[in-house]
Design brief:
Blueprint (H helix, E strand, L loop, with lengths): L3 E7 L3 H11 L5 E8 L6 H14 L7 E3 L13 H4 L21 H11 L5 E5 L4 H9 L3 H4 E6 L15 H5 L1
Parallel strand pairs: 1-2, 1-4, 2-3, 4-5
Length: about 170
């Protein structure tokens, strides 16, 4: 079975911590190229720490973490501490991470990873607000043609969880 190269763009609260662990649990199927953190469930200062805490919990300090956008492109940030707690990982007691945050903005890391690999081989799994992804496509329009796909967590079949029409990740942007 071929491995899928994935960039996990996320706002690690409790839900995205599980997404990180699930991606890491399938190394024969998923090549996790990087985690790119975005503000969402909690502010960026916490999401970039939470991603590294979860990687260390899983023993995967080799996966780079890049910090990205600290707010949506055109509106103020709204967070979800009422769901995930003030740290985003309330309920889990994890030590402060020792692995460093990688240099450079997440948007630039996304562009570099996609553009440096063969066309249509990288998937962006966006399980937080789409701010980093939107800015990467805006900055490098050819990137979208080189992606294998974008898989995202957002939208609602009936009612949204924030407004009658909006799910949180879509609402934040």
């Amino acid at each position: 079975m071929a491995r899928h190269a994935i960039i996990l763009d996320c706002d690690p609260g409790q839900d995205d911590a599980i997404a990180i662990l699930l991606a890491l649990a399938a190394p024969e199927e998923i090549e996790l190229l990087a985690i790119t953190a975005v503000a969402g469930n909690v502010p960026l200062g916490l999401t970039r720490v939470n991603a590294r805490k979860v990687l260390e919990l899983a023993g995967r300090t080799d996966v780079p973490v890049h910090a990205g956008c600290d707010r949506p492109l055109v509106r103020p940030l709204e967070t979800a501490e009422h769901v995930h707690g003030e740290t985003g990982l309330n309920g889990a007691v994890l030590p402060e991470p020792t692995i460093p945050l990688r240099d450079g903005h997440a948007v630039d890391a996304i562009i570099e990873l996609v553009m440096s690999r063969p066309p249509r081989t990288v998937t962006i799994a966006a399980v937080g607000p789409l701010t980093n992804v939107a800015l990467a496509i805006r900055k490098e329009p050819h990137m979208s043609q080189r992606l294998r796909q974008i898989v995202l967590m957002g939208g609602a079949i009936e009612l949204g969880n924030i407004t009658p029409a909006a799910e949180f990740n879509i609402y934040v942007d």
